[in-house]
């Protein structure tokens, strides 16, 4: 982590995130445990109580087309069971709320305990319509549990629409009660005592003594559908109400219309608990579309007869809501603690990270004000440390170039001052009549003017190279030819200095170059070699094919057997106005810019120039150019 700012920031972020997760877990665990334990201790049968509330309200919704009048039931359940009960419409408006009766706080829990929707819930399914699985399940229940014509479990038609008492008018209830009494009397007359029993339904149910009673115990059972062959059994005993038949017929009509439009094969089964049902003819017809048609038909058929969906809220406040009441204070305190820890961590870590950046900013401002010696202390190996090293390198380069610029200006002034002073001196002396203006004086003045012209031309070439405006005119040229031209041009100067100048050519060496510029670069090297080689020495200019960096090219070499160059001077030979021997003066004819110009010209041709030398062993300058 000490090597990367990115990793440090990632570690800090993960640490803060971990703290937040731990704090959240503590809040959730504490609040959940506290509230659940309180509710469990207060009422261990809370689930049964809530189930009874849900069942009573669902029955109310099934028996009434609206929720109007449910207030009485809500307050009765709240007073009886000691729970706050609130029923809200889907749009959030309050239908009924027992809060005032219990003196509970007006805020509701964050989420409802249940949604009462008898049109689409399991309690609102018509027998056999919701899915074919319900039909098969109902039939299996009848076959398995019907024994001797009696069903000892619940009715095989589970939905409330199929219940014997749903939707009965007062007149239908009276007729059902009379019929039940007749059936009970019939069983009693045949030696099987029967009686009427209130089972929570609107009509008393017939209970007959079982034929399978054990150990003399009297067991009463409700006659099932398998008892229809019994002489006492009456088909109207479990007949649904007229209202249930209307809903059933409407549902069947809607479902068949939907299935016909979807081209799904089906069959209508009659007399399933006195009602009709649908099932697919084949297993392949039992699709999601079959279920959708059945569900939509049931919901649409029930809509005019049952209450619309509503949300049921139980209890004074949500057990898991940590953003209300006491939980909000605890959450806020924990959040502040996490933020405080994160702020402290980021503060100390940020100071460590910002310190070198502030130092960099200060050093940059000092450099802007002219202090090129400004540097920053660097420690570590991370990104900020690398930035500090890069800044120091940049400052070192700027300082070095600034020093070179100043030295160059001084050198240029010196180089210009000497010939100008000579020219002015000779002209003043001639004007005063001290020196006659003869051919010798004119020749000397022309030599001084030539030196000035040569220096100005070299400065112009360097300025163009620095500005990236050095123009080249490349063409296919034979480098061997160029070498011969350079040797021929510098032959007189070599003869005057008593030096042997030769060319070492192996054969044609074709390359695409600017011939004039290559002669200029090579001529500068030859001039230097002649200038620094003692009398009697020799200079060899050669060309040979080589490869550099996997690329084919040619080496143009200038080798002399002069005094050589000390190793400490080699890295600076191509700097402007740099001379290995400061005792050598301008009288040798050099401007101090030749090697710098050669370097720029070579690089403009995508090549490079190097030098190898050792004291008293001569020097070799090499220009590599791509073929």
UniProtKB/TrEMBL annotation:
Sequence ranges assigned to domain HAMP in this UniProt record: 351-403
EC number(s) given by UniProt: 2.7.13.3
Pfam name, any one: HATPase_c
Chief location of this protein within or outside the cell: membrane
Annotated TM spans: 327-349
Location in or out of the cell: Cell membrane
Organism in which the protein naturally occurs: Kribbella speibonae
Catalytic activity entry: ATP + protein L-histidine = ADP + protein N-phospho-L-histidine
Protein name as catalogued: histidine kinase
GO molecular function: kinase activity
Keyword set, alphabetical order: Kinase, Membrane, Phosphoprotein, Transferase, Transmembrane, Transmembrane helix, Two-component regulatory system
Keyword Cell membrane listed: no
């Amino acid at each position: 982590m000490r090597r990367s700012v990115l990793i440090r920031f990632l570690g800090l972020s993960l640490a803060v995130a971990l703290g937040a997760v731990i704090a959240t877990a503590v809040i959730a665990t504490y609040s959940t445990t506290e509230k659940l334990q309180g509710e469990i201790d207060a009422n261990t049968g809370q689930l049964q109580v809530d189930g009874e509330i849900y069942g009573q309200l669902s029955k109310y919704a099934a028996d009434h087309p609206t929720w109007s009048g449910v207030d009485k039931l809500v307050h009765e359940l709240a007073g009886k069971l000691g729970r706050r009960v609130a029923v809200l419409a889907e749009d959030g408006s309050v239908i009924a709320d027992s809060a005032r009766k219990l003196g509970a706080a007006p805020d509701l829990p964050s989420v409802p305990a249940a949604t009462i929707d008898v049109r689409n819930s399991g309690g609102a399914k018509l027998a056999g319509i919701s899915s074919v699985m319900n039909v098969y399940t109902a039939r299996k229940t009848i076959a398995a549990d019907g024994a001797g014509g009696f069903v000892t479990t619940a009715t095989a038609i589970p939905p409330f629409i199929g219940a014997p008492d749903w939707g009965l008018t007062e007149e239908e209830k009276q007729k059902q009660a009379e019929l039940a009494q007749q059936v009970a009397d019939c069983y009693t007359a045949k030696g099987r005592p029967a009686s009427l029993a209130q089972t929570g339904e609107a009509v008393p149910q017939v209970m007959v003594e079982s034929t399978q009673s054990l150990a003399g115990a009297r067991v009463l059972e409700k006659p099932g559908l398998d008892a229809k062959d019994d002489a006492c059994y009456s088909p109207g005993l479990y007949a649904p109400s007229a209202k249930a038949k209307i809903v059933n017929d409407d549902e069947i009509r809607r479902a068949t219309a939907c299935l016909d439009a979807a081209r799904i094969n089906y069959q209508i089964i009659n007399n399933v608990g006195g009602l009709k049902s649908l099932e697919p003819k084949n297993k392949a017809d039992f699709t999601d579309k079959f279920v959708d048609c059945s569900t939509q038909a049931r919901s649409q058929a029930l809509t005019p007869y049952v209450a619309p969906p509503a949300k049921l809220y139980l209890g004074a406040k949500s057990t898991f809501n940590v953003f209300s009441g006491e939980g909000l204070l605890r959450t806020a305190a924990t959040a502040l603690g996490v933020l405080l820890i994160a702020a402290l961590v980021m503060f100390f870590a940020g100071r460590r990270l910002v310190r070198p950046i502030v130092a960099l900013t200060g050093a940059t401002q000092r450099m802007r004000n002219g202090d090129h010696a400004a540097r920053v202390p660097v420690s570590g190996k991370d990104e900020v440390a690398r930035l500090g090293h890069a800044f120091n390198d940049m400052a070192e380069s700027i300082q070095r170039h600034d020093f070179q610029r100043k030295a160059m200006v001084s050198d240029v002034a010196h180089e210009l001052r000497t010939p100008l002073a000579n020219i002015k001196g000779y002209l003043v002396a001639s004007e005063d009549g001290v020196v006659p203006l003869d051919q010798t004086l004119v020749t000397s003045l022309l030599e001084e003017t030539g030196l000035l012209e040569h220096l100005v031309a070299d400065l112009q070439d360097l300025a163009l190279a620095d500005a990236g405006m050095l123009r080249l005119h490349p063409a296919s040229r034979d480098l061997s030819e160029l070498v011969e031209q350079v040797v021929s041009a510098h032959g007189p100067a070599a003869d005057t200095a008593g030096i042997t100048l030769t060319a070492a050519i192996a054969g044609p060496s074709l390359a695409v170059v600017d011939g004039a510029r290559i002669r200029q670069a090579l001529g500068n090297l030859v001039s230097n070699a002649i200038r620094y080689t003692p009398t009697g020495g020799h200079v060899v200019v050669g060309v040979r094919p080589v490869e550099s960096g996997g690329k084919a090219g040619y080496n143009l070499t200038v080798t002399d057997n002069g005094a050589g160059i000390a190793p400490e001077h080699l890295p600076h030979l191509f700097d402007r106005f740099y001379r290995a021997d400061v005792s050598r003066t301008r009288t040798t004819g050099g401007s101090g810019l030749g090697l710098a110009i050669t370097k720029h010209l070579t690089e403009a041709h995508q090549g490079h120039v190097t030098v190898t030398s050792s004291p008293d062993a001569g020097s070799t300058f090499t220009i590599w150019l791509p073929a």
